[in-house]
Amino acid sequence: xxxxxxxxxxxxxxxxxxxxxxxxxPSGGGTDSERLNICAKYQTQSGWSQxxxxxxxxxxxxxxxxxxxxxxxxxxxxxxxxxxxEGEASVLEMDYYYGTLSAYGVDATDQxxxxxxxxxxxxxx
Length: 125
Description:
- The protein has two helices and seven strands, in the order H-E-E-E-H-E-E-E-E.
- The protein is of the alpha+beta class.
- The longest helix is centred in the first third of the chain and has 14 residues, at 10-23.
- The protein starts with 9 loop residues before the first helix and ends in a 6-residue tail after the last strand.
- Residues 1-10 and 24-30 have low confidence and may be disordered.
């Protein structure tokens, strides 16, 4: 089972996914976001989950708030947004971000408080 953000109506997540997909399309221009293929896994009670090789949008919290019309995200933080399926997204706040995501990766936290580890690498385990 994939860990998904919940607590909002499905309609909210559908609108979020559709809005972000339009906002962060390659021809969107004018954004500070970046699309990367990453390896993501989350902390469970018995260790790390399986690793998922997925595409993520790296975006500043200020831009995320602006595009989504909310104040839910820290404007000075950087987030990795993973779209699992239509209307299903994980928004991960990275512990730190210095302009690039390395192969060693960085820890992140989703809105439910779950710890993640994400890395920009072709090796995903």
